[in-house]
Each structure stands twice: as C-alpha cells, then as structure tokens.
Predict the structure.
Amino acid sequence: MIYSAVMGYGVVGSGVVEVLTDHRESIAKRAKEEIGIKYILDIRDFPGSPFQDKFTKSFDDILNDDEVRVVAEVMGGVNPAYEFTKKCLERGKSVVTSNKELVATKGAELLEIARANNVNYLFEASVGGGIPIIRPMSQCLAANEVIEVAGILNGTTNFILTKMIRENMSFEDALRLAQQLGYAERNPAADVEGLDAGRKICILASLAYGKHVYPQYVHTQGVTKITLEDVAYAASWGGVIKLIGQVKKLEDDTLDITVEPMFIEKSSQLASVDDVFNGIMVRGDATGDVVFYGKGAGKLPTASAVVADIIDCVKHLKARKYLYWADGGEELVKPYEETSYPVFIRAEADDRQAVFGMASELFRNPRVIVRTNAAENELAFVTDEMTVKEQQNAIARLEENGVKVMSKIRISDL
Amino acid sequence: MIYSAVMGYGVVGSGVVEVLTDHRESIAKRAKEEIGIKYILDIRDFPGSPFQDKFTKSFDDILNDDEVRVVAEVMGGVNPAYEFTKKCLERGKSVVTSNKELVATKGAELLEIARANNVNYLFEASVGGGIPIIRPMSQCLAANEVIEVAGILNGTTNFILTKMIRENMSFEDALRLAQQLGYAERNPAADVEGLDAGRKICILASLAYGKHVYPQYVHTQGVTKITLEDVAYAASWGGVIKLIGQVKKLEDDTLDITVEPMFIEKSSQLASVDDVFNGIMVRGDATGDVVFYGKGAGKLPTASAVVADIIDCVKHLKARKYLYWADGGEELVKPYEETSYPVFIRAEADDRQAVFGMASELFRNPRVIVRTNAAENELAFVTDEMTVKEQQNAIARLEENGVKVMSKIRISDL
C-alpha cells in the first residue's frame, strides 16, 4: 500500500477522493500497488463526510508522515500552495497538481526542486482538464520540434462566445447564463480577462521550448470587449471569433506568444470547438498538426487527470519521470508591439468613402467587409500583416482625424 | 551513447533514420543520452546512401551485438518481423514498432516476453501515425474506465469517402486518385476491405480492456460496396458515411467490436474528420469524450512516433514502462449477429407503397428517407435498433418476396 494525501477538498479535491475510492481496484492493477488516502487537508469541516477520519487542518501532519509518498495539491492559488509543494518535494514526496497558476508562476523552480530531490512534480490536470496534453507533448511528440501551439484553453469564455455566435446573445447575458450554469464564477475576471488561458499557454510554451515563460511577459486580452457586431463581421468574413492562446517560435528564436480574441476561419479545426469544450493544436515539424479535443474543466475530468498523475508517481517512485524546463526571462518573448499579423478594424464612419480613403493610406491593403444590418455609420475592414506598433500608429492617426476605432481584432493564421 | 538498430529501410524506416539523424541534439537532450544508429537491416542495396556503413543483410549482426539496446522494427508484415522481435526481446533488447499487423496478431505474446525479460515493447506508431493515442490511453486516461473507443482509423478509405461525399466521385475513381497520389497501394485490399482499420481497433480494444482481442473475431467490412446513392441518402438523413472502427463494453462484459461503414450525424466530432486525416474518440467515465485528431499516416509523422518510443525506451532501460495486456479469446467478443443497432436499408422498389408495407411488418419502426434525384424504383429507410440476426432475417424475407436489397449500413450512436 502506497499512501497519498489530498490538499484541498473543493471541487477537484473531492473528485480526486471520489475517483481514488470508486476505482480502487482498477487503479491498483494499473499502479501495481494499492493507493490509499491517508490525509485530506482542508481548513473547513465536512460533517457527515464518509472520510471523517482522514481530514486534517494541519499541513504538518502530511509533511511529517514519511508514509505519504504522493501528495495531490488541488488547493489552487499561489499561497500557501507554493510553500506546501516546495516542502513536500524537499521531503522526498512527489506532488501532482491541477494548479495552473502555481505551475505558470513557479514551475521552473518547483521542477528544479523535484529534480534535486529525485521525486516528481506532475501537472497533467493544469491544462485541458481531462484532455491528455502535457504528457503527449513531453513524450509522444518528443521527436518533433514544436513549431506552434494554439488552443481554445478556457471553457467559460468559449461558452460565452458560442452563445454570442449561435444565439446572438450579448456578452453580459451570456456571462450571466454561464454563472447560472456554474461555468463561470461570481468574480469571473480570471476567465473573461484571459488570465486563465494565459497561464495555460505559458505552461504549454515552457514545455514546448524548454524554458519557463512567465505570464507577466505575455500579452493577455480577454473577451469583455467583443460585441455582437464583431461576431457578425467575423461571420461575413467567413469565420468565428475565438479566444486563442498561441505560441510560435520566430526566426530570431524569440516567441510570439499571446492570448487574445482572434478571427479564425470556419475551416480551421479549432473553429468547431464550441461550448465549454477545449481544443489544442500542436504543430510539429515531423508530425504535422495534431489536435486534442475534450472537456477542459469539470470535477471528474480534472480529477481523473490528477489521479492519472498519482498513478504515474506511484509507478515511478524510484525512476524519475522526465518532465522539466529551465528558468527563463523576459528576453524569451518578442515584445507584443513588434509582433506582426493581419488585423480586423471596425470604426465609426459617417462618411464611409472618406474614412476608407484615410484607412487606405494608413493600413496595409485594407479590404472592406460588408454585412447585412450593419449600422450606416460604420466601416469594417481587414488588413495584410502589420506589426502591432504600425497598427497602433495607424489607429492613432485615424483617431486624430476624428474617426473613432471601436474594434481591433487579430486575424489568426490557424 | 546508446545504440539502436532499424529493421526495414522502407518509407517509415528511412524516416526513422532521418529523424534520428536530423534531430540528434534535441533527442539527446530529451533522452539524456545520445542515441546512435548502429545497424540498418534491409535485404536491398542502397547505393549512394550516406548510411552505407550501417547497412546489413544479416539479422544476427543486430541480435548478437550487445551494444544494441533498442531495435525499431519497421518492416511490416508478420514474418519475419515476429521472429526477429521475439529474439530481440529475449536477448534483452527493447523493441519499438509501427507494425500494426504484428501487434494485432501477436501483441499479447510479445508483451509477455518483454515483461519476462524486463524490457519494453512499444508501438505508439501502430495506430494513428503521428497522433499520440497509445500512451494517452494507457497513461493519461489510467483513472478512467473506458466506455467506448471509436475512430476513423484509416486515411486511405477516409480520403476515398471524402471524395465521394464532396465531389460526387465514384468509388473506383476515388480509389484511382488515391493510388495516383500515393495514398493507396497498388493492391489496396488491406485498406479498402477494412483490414487495416480492424487491426487498429483490435490494438485499441486490447489496451482499453486489458485482454487481447484478435482480428479474426471481429466483424470487418470495408468501403468497396458504398455507392454514391448511399452517400446522397446519408446527406438527406443529416450526416455522412465514414468507415468507423468501434468497440464498447456491453452489460454482459463482452465487447461490441466492429469495423464497418456507418452513418454518422453531421454534429459528431468525427463527421468533420476528412481527407487522409484520422480522428479517434475515447469515451471515459470520468473524462467524458476526448478526441485525438491528425494525420494518421505518412513517413515523418509515423517515424516521429517510432522515435518517441525509442527515446522512451532509452529513458527506461532499467525501469520498465507499464504497457501490457493479457491473452484473450473468442469469448471476449459478442458474436456480430447478436449485436444490435439501427440500420439504413436501400432496396429496389417498383411499387414503393407495397415495399414499404412489407418493410413495416419486417423491420422495427422504419422511416422513409427521401432525396432529390433518387431513382424512381428505389426505397430507402432507417429503422430502430435491431439485432443483426433480425436485420438479416427481415432482409431475407424481403428478398423472398422479390425485393432486392442493395444497401444495409449501420447507423452509429456517435
């Protein structure tokens, strides 16, 4: 019998306990050891829970018990998860987690501590919920150079955009519905402002390129400013708006990494990833495009990914898994202003002809997009590739001339 | 330096040599060891090849060289690949392969020999080419009970069906085009008769349920009898025809496993998997539906999967990977006649009214499907779920009454 502990008895934590308990036998067969739960750490009380004898409020109970070999950290947040994880690894316990915030901000350091102590730090559940992505990227695609990773990484915003696209629901109404259905939290900022997707693309980028990419260096933009007009123009253009986390290596070895809403063509594999689903495309030089698709969140999918990592730790109590990236700095990331892409612009235009005339001088090869039921005093167009700096300058010049720009959305090459 | 050998210098074998050579450095970093190629086994000569010094025609050179720790068997076919693999494993060499025929027919035995000799037998490349599927199923979904696996597992037939659906091309013309483009072999039987897809679903079923499912017990039907009329009816019904390999566990613990063309609804994730692409859906009890999508064949995708397995073997020279299933027999598989599903029937009908009257007595709840440009003397309908035996009896009765049945196609629940 190998003992584990679960830190945090929220949605994911209770799911982990449930999966470990309900699938006890088949898990033992796969891990070649029975896996018991010795402690569940939570500051709250859970009267009536069948796991009464396992609850503790003291982290030290777990830390000081040498029988506990694997710890699932499913508390979320950086503190105190960071300190607890560090101490467990230093004590020779393997740690598995679904905590994307911690992995995205402290991954390199924790992976180094795990290595120094010959234990594992695994985090399959931190990206894509139950979709296998961390392990396929680190193992199955090991013989590839990763050219690009792009994905719909946040189910809440994808649900909101799907409602806007399919049912013409406003952002506010769609958000309210997501909250009613339990897909969005009461404070939805981490989702709708793109922070959650940002953490996930940082984890995928670190894994793909071997150096830690920190969220603070990554341009991160959410969906709060997307309007139904933008959605309609995207349809006229032949696509949909999705919140995309994307990273690709540029010729100068820096990374073009961003989270932002993008126009993507209907024919793209990611265009049909709807509702709360996630889809992640990995472009390898040998393997071509490989797409992973499934529910990106939820109690049991995420818990099953955590438990798969626990099983893997138990199977690798002696031989360490190779999952590692080095520390990295700001120089890894191409400054956002210097990145380059075609863009969609929507502007107020009492005199469309005149505004298009100006746009033609300021933007690279603008082409007007028309749609039915468009307001009479607006003009929308798409451009060729321009740097963000050039886009910003052009917009500033338009606005100096009294033309208000209402939307600017990246056009993806997906 | 760890030495490998490559057996077979065809499309995949030359790709393996190419990937190992071109990515030498990054592979060394990932494997934590340099990986050299010591031998390439092929009965042919390759004058002018830069790997001249590595070619051998004698398998014993590889077998008797204790420096060779990992062997890539990319010869294809059961003989002599079976004997070579067995001998290598018995000599303590790990073997990796893309040979689905060998894994599907001898997998349990070879996995047992690998276990007994504390080495690895890995075959990520045998299903889905460069799409990671074997490892995600065996590791990432380890905490799931697999409810169902269904996939488009053969790129050649998917290309042919896509041409029939999109361009109204006949089966014969589409096959000829596939041959011209190098997607189909001159003798296309293994693809178009469903044998290739059958081997792959057997491998996935063995992995999912832990016991070897042999191809000879699996109902296997190809696409050679699919007509443009069937394709048009599928469109009227609201879907497409795809060649699906599918396995699900029934309540009596037997497996409903089959390869056959099926009607699938347009909204299914697999419906949009077109051309030479493969898509595989794994339905887990915890994780829900997870879909893997990408190019299912091709030199470099397949070679990169083989090389990823080589890297994994090098990282696990001492600790064995857990990839195993036990032997299995005919009793695992529900006899095809006893399986049950709704079906599409197309019949000659000079008097539609009369034929539909008969059908209503013989089939469960038949509903007529109409389509534009249908021949006047035919009737098409779909039924509720019936066992195959019941379907066959009903068809026999129709034919006794002089009604010729031209098509019978399974309607999937995907």
Q: What stands out?
A: Chain A touches chain B through 51 residues (CB under 8 Å). The first helix of chain A runs from residue 11 to 22. The radius of gyration of chain A is 23 Å. Chain A is about 35% helix and 25% strand.
